[in-house]
Amino acid sequence: MSDTSELKTADLCDAHAGTPHFHIAEPGFLDYGGRRSFSGPISTVRAPEDNSLVRKALEEPGQGRVLVVDGGGSRRCALVGDVLAALGEKNGWAGVVVNGCIRDAEEVGRTAIGVKALGTHPLKSGKRNEGQRDVEVRFAGVTFVPGHHLYADADGIVTSQKPLR
């Protein structure tokens, strides 16, 4: 796989906006990980205030994928913290996008993985083994489809059905 971490979302928008395979997420996600730019094939978790499946996903070899976590936009607890960010880094995940909160923000910032989320919350999530893996999830005006590609940097998040160069 070629290195796509240098692709800028603004340049991708200039080249692909308006095409049916390309989608631009609404703004609102903040950068927390040590990598501000990241990209890769999408894997998803639907996690309703329960990060059990997030952990299971990040325990797997990431192979440069991006884990998109739909926490329903909840700001009542964190779905990712320093331990899970380090696990994702160790297992080769390119990044994590959380439609919800993270915690341990300073430690997450020291990991070599991209992490975007809506905010921070000190309370950890429940552990009820609830949720779904690798299903389409929709938030920020975009449907995140497993196997499609995500590109993220300081300007935002975009997705494409196919890899972009």
Task: Provide the descriptors you would attach to this structure in a database record.
alpha/beta, two-stranded antiparallel ribbon, 12 strands, 4 helices, 18% helix, Glucose Oxidase, domain 1, 165 residues, globular, ten-stranded mixed sheet, 33% strand
Topology, please?
Layout: H1 9-16, E1 22-24, E2 30-31, E3 38-46, H2 52-59, E4 66-70, E5 78-80, H3 82-90, E6 95-102, H4 105-108, E7 114-120, E8 132-133, E9 137-139, E10 142-144, E11 149-153, E12 156-160
Parallel strand pairs: 3-4, 4-6, 5-6, 6-7
Antiparallel strand pairs: 1-12, 2-7, 3-8, 3-11, 9-10, 11-12
Report on this structure.
Helix 3 links the parallel strand 5 (78-80) and strand 6. This protein has a single domain, classed as Glucose Oxidase, domain 1, CATH 3.50.30.40. Helix 2 packs parallel to helix 3. Helices cover 18% and strands 33% of the residues. The protein is globular and about 40 Å long. The mean pLDDT is 95. By secondary structure, the chain is α/β, with parallel strands linked by helices.
The major beta sheet can be summarized as: 10 strands, mixed
Q: Specify the CATH class.
A: Alpha Beta
- Give average pLDDT, whole number: 95
In CATH, what is the homologous superfamily?
Ribonuclease E inhibitor RraA/RraA-like
Helix content: 10-25%
Binding site for substrate: 81-84, 103
Pfam family, one: RraA-like
Subunit structure: Homotrimer.
Cofactor: Mg(2+); a divalent metal cation
